[in-house]
Design a protein that fits this description.
Shape: globular
Structural class: alpha+beta
Largest sheet: 10 strands, antiparallel
Radius of gyration: 29 Å
CATH superfamily of one domain: Glycoside hydrolase 38, N terminal domain
Mean pLDDT: 94
Oligomer: single chain
CATH topology of one domain: 7-stranded beta/alpha barrel
CATH class of one domain: Alpha Beta
Number of strands: 53
Distance between the termini: 52 Å
CATH architecture of one domain: Alpha-Beta Barrel
């Protein structure tokens, strides 16, 4: 069909109708309801994945329909056409990526029609982020960024009527408490979702607890968020799917012999009455839609029109069911008007299980290299955003480059992207998209650094292969190479830097010509053996750098060769010389003891604590089912279902090699043919680094495998451990238990796995072990004193949840090899995570970004262009520093402290350095002034009575709003522990 060909008349009439005196969007546009009836809010929607079985573009254009029939552009075409025909109709749009792409292609007439639909509340946005993000494997910094992107687009196009007021997270595979906290901090009234552990849902249906008040933060007051669980997934009621992709009968009325109105109306009313028994109010919400529905929206709306008419006609005969078109925000508005209380919720909704053998905990680790690339993308994005502000890069091309990277990162948040639950071809497209965006944004970094330093013709190249200790820029020589380090954090930081080099004698100098101590360390032979890795550089130059924001270091080659062989010892070959079964590796802060007989770690001492800690690697063999039945479910992209307990890999036969450097000491372990590791400690660094290399995971035995590493100790953890929520607050986990229901633990291993975005820890009364990781992974504590993280997965069967292919990643004709890092801290027990842990996690995510150039001297940095962040308290970090518009800068600061009093600083010096004219505070996403925030407050069961009137949450503190005519005393910013505050500076 030719979309819009028959609707030009509708558009013309619509635009010629009297112009509204003011926008009637929001709650003013909500439908009327009826007292003493079950009010059924029909919510037309289409769930449109930004990539899954097809790429995002294939879904948009409707190509490759042999894979899945879906074309989002046609959905939006026909939905708008149908909305224009009847002012009672409603539709919600969620994925801003698809809408923005479609809207940009429309004629001015269509755009004006859409603007009027939005202004009248007939087309409403829900969620509003660039994509519907996952909640297990995403980092909160990236989630905030993609909401800022999507909500800013909607504000720029539609004003306040375009701003969503509810979260619509209907498809992610479990839900995090931090996501609810972010919704609250953005001023949302509530959220709705469709996936919950089937045992939890069963109990909530019985107890009328499908809707609740979620206490989304341990630290932030006013963070409670209304949260609702949908009754029948996010689908239409059984038998009432009117989409062209469905087989359900349409409503047939008139004189037709096949007239089915009475039967269809009775069936619907029966369904509504049954559904209403599980909800507390006289309002229920019924979604009308599913994946990629409404491609021919006339079919959907015509039948819904009839359903509404004939169900409501029954009221004349005494029916108490009232049905109408609505939206989730209108539904929530009606609930807010009620004087009643709701259940309380304090933990999260992980792990999600859809049946007794299907814990969706495998995707916490699926596609580990893509998960790492996602984190690298965020790291570079924060770096280049800051550089663009410092160098005042505001022209069209620079803005376009940043916008492209922002959009690519937004797409990567999608719940079938970073999760690793997409088809392999789609995964490659995600990588292509992000890589292209990073390369484009590199020109911003290059132009910025040419302005910020006197190296006006510097190459300032990034090396994206540093994860395999390779860099094309230093491949032939590192002589006269300038390493420019950019520190995305607020405070000066001292970190070790590693540069791939040849085995030569080097000198490193800083901008003042002072020599920086350095040494050359061998690259493990396992890395050198990687296929398609160029081995011109087989060593890494290591030096310790201190950087405030931007600093340059010059590497030169000296004539005399340097040998590293003398520092390498083989074990157990030298056991007889040492006359000991132990290898001790130590510096001033950390002492490691290894058993040279087994080659394994034995003891760690740091922070005045000593503990026997044994590390092992193991595999879970994937269950090999052959269909989608629960008891025959395979381990797959979503599901982790091991076939029995762990199989430990060669724990008594680890080959050991030791590099005894001055600044870094490294122990190389070869566990088996496809698992190896480097354990290292750096001088004056209070942690232990484990750099693992896993793959190709063998599949010759036709058995899928999931590889883990486990740290075992004597800590009496009593079944408790702690995992982070999207890199922010920590949640207590109790083995085999949940907060509000008794789980089915038929799959006790996978049922105790949780998402670990940043850290996992356990403790007793005296000691605490924390592991920090460099990408999202699944983690657990299956026995007291033990922590394990899943590193890699290679599976040969599909788990029958839709992706349709096994998670069998290959590269260069064999199984994929992954490399990554885990960091361990041993410390005394603490009631809350220490600031040092959170700061380290932030530093690991936002470590120095390295740029490389050729130069005969060390270029200087124009420090006059770089604002001074030293006024920020030590616990306060820079979460965002970016150009919001051509003459506006967004600044987002976070107090990383988990305990202690409030901290304050004066933002006036930063305001002046950015040539500020005015500053105001916004909600977390940056798109609504905080002073305007007013969101629904609901009362909890047992909170002290039923409220007599509707209540609201407002800004949790007095929002900052100052201008250049005011004194510096009006620019004070105060933060409580774990608080984030966001500001916009209008420049002169």
């Amino acid at each position: 069909m030719e979309h819009f060909s028959g609707v030009l008349g509708f558009i013309t009439l619509f635009l010629l109708s009297p112009v509204l005196a003011e926008a009637t969007c929001g709650f003013k546009a909500c439908p009327n309801t009826k007292l003493n009836m079950i009010n059924v809010h029909l919510v037309p929607h289409s769930h449109d994945d930004v990539g899954w079985l097809k790429t995002a573009d294939q879904y948009y254009y409707g190509s490759q329909n042999s894979i899945q029939h879906a074309g989002v552009q046609y959905i939006l075409d026909t939905v708008v056409e149908e909305l224009l025909k009847d002012s009672r109709r409603r539709f919600i749009q969620v994925e801003t990526f698809f809408f923005a792409k479609w809207y940009s292609e429309q004629s001015e007439a269509v755009q004006r029609a859409v603007q009027k639909l939005v202004a009248e509340g007939r087309l409403e946005f829900a969620g509003g982020a660039w994509s519907m993000n996952d909640e297990a494997t995403v980092h909160y910094q990236s989630v905030i960024d993609q909401f800022k992107l999507g909500l800013k687009y909607l504000k720029d196009i539609f004003g306040e009527c375009g701003r969503p007021t509810i979260g619509w997270q209907i498809d992610p595979f479990g839900h995090s408490r931090e996501m609810a906290s972010m919704f609250a901090q953005m001023g949302f009234n509530g959220q709705f979702f469709a996936r919950m552990d089937y045992m939890d849902k069963r109990k909530r249906l019985q107890d009328q607890e499908m809707e609740m008040i979620w206490q989304s933060s341990e630290y932030l007051r006013s963070s409670n968020l209304f949260t609702g669980m949908l009754y029948n997934h996010y689908s239409a009621p059984p038998g009432f799917c009117f989409d062209i992709n469905c087989q359900d009968a349409p409503i047939i009325d008139g004189e037709s012999y096949d007239n089915n109105v009475d039967q269809r109306v009775s069936d619907f009313i029966d369904y509504v009455k049954t559904m209403a028994k599980s909800y507390r109010s006289t309002h229920i919400m019924v979604p009308m839609g599913d994946d990629f529905q409404y491609e021919v929206a006339a079919v959907n709306f015509k039948n819904m029109d009839k359903l509404i008419k004939y169900v409501n006609d029954r009221q004349l005969a005494g029916s108490q069911v009232n049905v109408f078109y609505s939206t989730p925000s209108c539904y929530l508005y009606e609930l807010h008007q009620l004087h009643q209380t709701w259940p309380n919720k304090t933990d999260d909704f992980f792990p999600y299980s859809s049946d007794s053998h299907s814990y969706w905990t495998g995707y916490f680790t699926s596609r580990p290299t893509q998960k790492r690339f996602h984190r690298d993308g965020n790291h570079f994005f924060q770096t280049v955003k800051q550089l663009s502000v410092l160098a005042n890069l505001t022209d069209a091309q620079h803005s376009e480059n940043l916008e492209s990277l922002s959009q690519a990162m937004g797409i990567m948040q999608h719940h079938d992207a970073v999760t690793g639950t997409e088809k392999q071809a789609v995964a490659r497209d995600y990588d292509r998209m992000l890589f292209k965006a990073i390369v484009g944004a590199e020109s911003n970094a290059r132009d910025a650094l040419r302005s910020l330093t006197n190296l006006t013709s510097g190459e300032f190249e990034s090396c994206l292969d540093l994860n395999i200790s390779a860099c094309a820029f230093t491949q032939s020589t590192a002589n006269n190479v300038v390493v420019t380090l950019v520190n995305p954090m607020a405070h000066a930081s001292t970190q070790y830097v590693r540069v791939p080099v040849k085995n030569e004698n080097y000198i490193v100098t800083d901008e003042k010509g002072r020599e920086i101590p350095s040494e050359v360390v061998p690259v493990p032979w396992q890395v050198l053996a990687l296929e398609h890795r160029s081995n011109g550089t087989q060593h890494e130059l290591v030096f310790r750098a201190s950087v405030e924001k931007v600093a340059n270091f010059l590497i030169r080659v000296l004539p005399s060769p340097k040998s590293v062989v003398k520092n390498t010892a083989q074990f157990p070959q030298e056991k007889a010389i040492d006359e000991t079964d132990e290898l001790i590796v130590e510096n001033s802060l950390v002492k490691l003891t290894f058993d040279t007989t087994t080659g394994g770690l034995k003891t760690i001492e740091m922070n005045g604590i000593r503990e026997d800690i044994h590390q092992s690697f193991g595999i879970y063999k994937g269950f090999r089912g052959n269909n989608g039945e629960a008891n025959n479910r395979s381990s797959g992209a979503y599901v982790f279902r091991p076939d029995g307990d762990i199989e430990v890999l060669s724990s008594n036969q680890v080959d050991l090699t030791f590099y005894n450097g001055t600044r870094v000491k490294e122990v190389y372990q070869q566990v088996n043919e496809w698992v190896s590791q480097v354990i290292r400690i750096y001088d004056e660094v209070n942690r232990v680094e484990f750099e693992w290399l896993v793959g190709p995971i063998p599949a010759d035995d036709e058995v899928g495998k999931e590889v883990i590493t486990r740290f075992s100790s004597g800590i009496a953890s009593k079944g408790k451990f702690y995992t982070d929520s999207n890199g922010r607050e920590m949640l207590e986990r109790v083995r085999n238990q949940r907060e509000t229901f008794d789980p089915n633990m038929s799959e006790a291993i996978s049922g105790n796995y949780y998402p670990v975005t940043g850290q996992i820890s356990l403790q007793d009364d005296e000691k605490r072990i924390t592991l920090l990781n460099d990408r999202a992974q699944g983690g657990a504590s299956l026995n007291d004193g033990e922590l394990e993280l899943m590193l890699h997965r290679r599976l040969l069967n599909d788990d029958a949840f839709g992706v349709g292919e096994a998670l069998n990643e290959t590269q260069f004709g064999t199984g994929l090899i992954a490399r990554g890092k885990i960091y361990l801290i041993l410390d005394e027990a603490s009631e809350k995570p220490k600031h040092a842990e959170r700061l380290l996690q932030h530093e690991l995510d936002q470590h120095f970004w390295k740029f490389f150039s050729k130069s005969n001297g060390v270029p200087s940095v124009n420090k006059n262009m770089i604002p001074d962040f030293t006024d920020l308290p030590k616990t306060v970090e820079l979460l965002s520093f970016e150009q919001y518009s051509r003459d506006q800068v967004l600044i987002r600061v976070e107090n990383l402290a988990t305990e202690g009093n409030v901290v304050s600083f004066n933002i006036h010096p930063l305001f002046e350095s950015l040539n500020g004219d005015r500053i105001w505070e916004t909600t977390l996403d940056g798109n609504m002034e905080l002073v305007d925030m007013k969101r629904f407050k609901f009362s909890q069961d047992g909170a002290g009575g039923i409220p007599s009137s509707v209540e609201y949450y407002y800004a949790p503190h007095s929002p900052l709003s100052s201008n250049s005519t005011m004194s510096a005393s009006e620019f004070v910013v105060t933060l409580v522990p774990m608080q984030i505050r966001t500001f916009i500076i209008q420049q002169k």
